[in-house]
Fold each of these.
Amino acid sequence: MNIILSNSNGIPIFEQIENAIKEAIFSNELKEEDMLPSVRSLANDLKISFLTVKRAYDELEQVGFIKTIQGKGSFVAPKNVELIKEEKLREIQDYIEKIYNISKMANISGEEVKELFRMIFEEDF
C-alpha cells in the first residue's frame, strides 16, 4: 500500500491516510483480515507523528473499516457491503452537488444535465 501525503491540498493528514486505506480496501489491494502496518511503522514510513496515524486508525475502526486486536495489530475488517455502498453514494453526491453548482453558474438547465447523464449511462450498456 502506497500512501502519498500532500500538505497543499487542504485535507488533514489523518484524513488523507484514512482515504488512502479506504481506497485500498475498495480496490481490493487490501483484503479482509490483511494486517495493516503498525501505527509507529506507518508513522516512521510517512515521517509524521504516530498520533496522526493513530487518529486515522481510530476513525477507520469507528466506522467499521478496520479492527484492532490488542497486542496483535490492526486488520481490515470483513467487508460490509452496505458500508462501502454508503461511502460511494456519499462520494457521488459530492460530485453531483458540484455538477449542480456548475450548471447553475453556467445557466444550464436540469434537463440538459439529465440528458448528459442519460447519454453517459446509455454508452455503458
Amino acid sequence: MSGQNANLLLIEDNEITREGLATVLRNAGYAVSPCTNGRQGLDYLRAGHKTELILLDMLMPDLDGWQFLDELGRWPRALDVPIVVVTGTILTREWAHSHGCRGFLRKPVDCAELLEQVRRCLGESL
C-alpha cells in the first residue's frame, strides 16, 4: 500500500504531539485520523472506518493504550492492522512485540524513525 492511499489512526492525547505527528505523516502523503484517547480510537474502528495502521500512545485518560490493546483482543474477529506503540514509558520494543504490536517508537519521536516504522509496517519500500 502506498503512502498516498494509507489511512493511519493516530491515538494520542497530547495535542502538540498529536498535531506534530499528524503533520509529518500528512506531509509524507498519508491520510491521518486523529483520536485523543483509546475510547475514541475504538469508536472509530467500531464505526467501520478503514485504517491500515494504528499509532498508539500508552498513557492517556479515559482509555489508555493497555486497555485499548486488551479491548481489541476481545473482539470476535481479530483486527489485522499493524499497531505501532508510541510511548515515553519504560516499555520496550520486546514488550510491544510480545503484545502483538509490529512497531515501537520512543518519545520524543524522531521524524525519520516515525516514517521508517510506518513504511516498514505497511510493507512499503524504503
Amino acid sequence: MLKFHTHTPGSRRASGQVLSALRTFRKNEDGGIIVLSLLLLIVMLVMGGMAVDFMRFESRRAQLQSVSDRAVLAAANLSQTIDSKQVVIDYFEKAGFADAIVGEPIVVDKGNSRSVRVKSELDINTFYLRLIGMDTLSAPAEAAAIEGIGKVEISLVLDISGSMRNGGSTSKGRFGDMQKAAKAFANKVLDPKNGGQITLNIIPYAGMTNPGPEMFDFLNGKRYATPVIDNGPDGKLGTADDVLFPQVSSCLDFEDSDWGTSGLPGKGRDQVPHFMVWAIAPAVMDWGWCPQDVSAIRYAMTDAAEVATFIDGIRMHDGTGTHYGMKYALAALDPATQPAFAHLNAVNPALLPDEFKNRPAPWDDKETKKIIVLMTDGAITQQFRPKMPTDKSNLTSAIGTNKDSKRGREIASAGVNVNRFNQICSLAKHPSRNVEVYTVAFEVSGAGATQMRNCASDPSMYFPASGAGLVDVFEDIAEQITDLRLSL
C-alpha cells in the first residue's frame, strides 16, 4: 500500500526558518576583510622575503666581483713571478669562492704586456623566493686587467716660444724644465721593456710649426724666391757683401679648409717667410716666427737617446701658435698621413724607421692607442706676416704688431686662432678617432689655462704645473699610458 506523507504546519515553519537563515548568511559580509587581510599579509611576507633574498644576492655578487678585480690586478702585474693562472685561483680559494671560477683564467703574456681575464658565477640559495619556485639565484662576475702597452702612437707637443725663457726652476727658465720633462717622458714611454711598439712624434711650436723640409717637399710647398740681397754700404748687387735671403725654415701657410680636417694641410701651400714680430733674446732664441729646420717636427721616434739629443738641440722662437702644434699633432696620428710617413722613410730611414713606415694605424685599429700630450706656457696669439716676404729688413728687425704697419699685417686674430684650436681638439676627441688628449698648463693661468683645460679629453687629463714639477707631471702622464689597470 502506498503511503503519502503530508507536512504539518510546524514542519513548514522549520523549513522556512532554515531557508531564511541561508539567505541571510549568503548576504552577510561580516569578517570578509579578515580573509583579505590574511591574503595581503601573505603577499607582503613573500615580498619582504624576496627583498631579503635579493639583498643577500647583491652582497655576495659584490664580494665575488671584488675578489675577481683584485685577482686579475695581482695576476697581470708584470713584477708578479708566480704563474698568473695560479694567482687568480689562489685569490678565489682564500676568499671562499674556489668553485666559482667558470672555465680557466685567460692569460695573454707578451713580455712587454700581460692581460688576465676571469669569469665566475656563484649560486645562492634562497629563503623566500623558493615559495614561488626559485630555489637559487645565480650571481655572475667578470674581470680583466692589463699592464704594459701594445702599439701606441704619441704626439708630444712642446711650447718653444720666447716666453719660455722666463720663470721655471732652471737657468734656462721654463724652457730648461720643459727639456728635462720631455726627456723623462721619452725615457718612460720608449723604455725597451715596453716592447718597441711605441712611436713618439716630437712637435715643437712657436708662432708656427715647422713640419720639416722633407715633409714640406712631400706637400709640394711653394717656397718664396731666394733673391740676392745687398748687405753692404756700397748699395750695389754683385759685390762681395751680397747675401742670399736665408732658407732655414719650412713652415706652410694654411687655408681655411685645412682647419676642418684631421690630416696634413693641403698640397701646394705657400711657405711662411723668415721674419720676427717681437724683439728676441739672441742668446737663447733663433730668428724666425717659423722655427728653423733644426727645431722642426721629428716623426715616429723610438730611441730615447735620440729624443734627448734632439730636445737638447731645440732653440726658442717667436710667438705662440698652439693651434698649429695641435694640428700637426693630430695629423701625425691620422692614417691619411701614411703616404707621407712612407715618403720620409724612402728619403732617409733615419727620418722614420723601416718598421714604422706603415703608420699611422687606422682609426679603428683596436690594437693601437693614439695619444696627444700638449703643453703651453701662454695663451694663443695673433698671426702676423710681413707685407714684403723677402725684404732684407725682415732679417734684422721685427715687423711689429701694428695692423697699419708699413712692414707687417695681422692675418688672423687671437680669437680666430683659438676657434681653430678648439676645432682641432674636437676633431681629435671625436668618437670616430677617440684620441686621448692630455694637456699641461705650465705656469700659466687665465686664457691659456682655459684653452688647455677645454682641450683635454677629461678634466682628470688636464694638469697645471710649475717649475721642476713639470717633470713629475710628464712622468705621471707617462705612467698613466703604461700603468696597470682594469680593462673591463
